[in-house]
Design brief:
Length: 373
């Protein structure tokens, strides 16, 4: 009798304990569920935020080039799109002077540093050869008048090779990077190394965010480009920089052919002083195939010397390909040349390339604190 009387009480206690336990478990589960949902929502928000990044924030929304590039990137990175391009084939090539960086202040960067080396560098100016001084005079004429002498590109290439002969590649690059820290003569609050077009730097960031491999293909000496880029806000590895070339030798090699000379543990590479090639026009096409080994799908240039590169990119390409040409038509924020810009815009119409207007398409060029003198 006593056990039967206690059973209802015992069952009530057990039921109460079970109820409390069930409530506790439910609460823990609810907390975890809420936390998981919060994390999921946070991740979704982060993903949405990433997809909403305006990589081209310094471009006006009215810019046709911005719209076209964004549409292109969306199409070629979507695996469901017929225009999808596999990552390994996303190759973009950029000219340097006038496309990524200031072209004339008061002339090309490689002309300016050459003139400094031959005429102003206290460590070299008294050693410069007559030929090097003649070419420096040609450069000075171009600075003052904008008119170049016949064969100026070839002469300049040979003179650069001569004036920097004996430098190791590292010494040459560091020399250029140091010179690039000097003020830009035509601008306030700007060094030569900072004279890169901010909207174009955005383009490179945008492409790299979408797994494009970016190459610089310039008419400027390869090592001069490396030095300038080293000092600049642009982050492109040396292996993706292509330019005009001079020979490299071992110091004791002399006139011995490379097939007959053996590099040993006491050797190092130095600039040999002999000009090899000016990387302009058709030479850009040749060197792209030689060094990259693939047809690009995007090309960015600014002058007729980039036309072959643009045509090569867009002609008989198995992938959707575009070419953009920068028109330097801004005479307020840049050393614009409306006549040349108009000619380039017309060339874009004729060749189905996309023209970029500095004046109309960009909110800024070098930054709002930079002004022309």
């Amino acid at each position: 009798m006593e056990n039967s009387k206690k059973s209802p009480v015992l069952w009530k206690i057990i039921s109460l304990v079970l109820a409390i336990a069930l409530v506790a478990v439910s609460s823990v589960f609810a907390v975890h569920l809420k936390s998981d949902k919060a994390n999921e929502a946070s991740e979704t928000t982060a993903e949405d935020s990433e997809t909403q990044v305006d990589y081209l924030s310094l471009w006006n929304d009215s810019a046709a080039a911005k719209t076209q590039l964004e549409s292109y990137i969306k199409a070629v990175t979507d695996e469901a799109s017929p225009d999808f391009i596999p990552v390994e084939n996303r190759i973009a090539v950029f000219d340097l002077d006038g496309t990524l960086a200031c072209e004339t202040d008061p002339c090309y960067f490689d002309h300016c540093i050459y003139y400094y080396r031959v005429m102003e560098d206290p460590a070299y100016k008294d050693k410069a050869s007559d030929f090097e001084k003649e070419v420096a005079a040609d450069v000075k004429q171009f600075m003052n008048t904008g008119v170049s002498v016949p064969d100026s590109m070839e002469r300049h290439g040979k003179a650069v090779a001569s004036a920097f002969s004996g430098f190791t590649p590292e010494e040459f690059v560091d020399y250029v990077a140091e010179y690039a820290k000097t003020p830009s003569p035509g601008y306030n609050n700007l060094t030569r190394a900072q004279a890169f077009y901010k909207p174009m730097l955005e383009v490179i960031d945008y492409l790299e965010a979408n797994e494009f491999k970016v190459y610089i293909v310039s008419g400027t000496d390869r090592f001069i480009v490396r030095g300038l880029v080293q000092a600049s806000p642009l982050d492109i590895p040396a292996s993706q920089i292509i330019g005009s070339d001079e020979n490299l030798v071992a110091p004791d090699q002399g006139d011995t052919d490379g097939l007959d000379y053996q590099f040993d543990e006491n050797d190092q590479l130095v600039m040999g002083g002999e000009f090899i090639v000016k990387n302009l026009d058709m030479n850009k096409v040749t060197v792209i195939q030689q060094e990259i080994g693939q047809q690009p799908v995007l090309s960015f240039g600014n002058s007729s010397s980039d036309s072959s590169m643009a045509q090569y990119t867009t002609t008989n390409n198995r992938y959707k390909a575009l070419a953009f040409m920068l028109c330097c038509d801004d005479t307020v924020r840049e050393n614009g040349n409306p006549e040349k810009a108009e000619k380039m815009a017309k060339s874009c119409d004729e060749n189905d390339w996309t023209a970029i207007s500095m004046k109309d398409d960009w909110k800024t060029i070098y930054g709002d604190n930079v002004t022309r003198k």
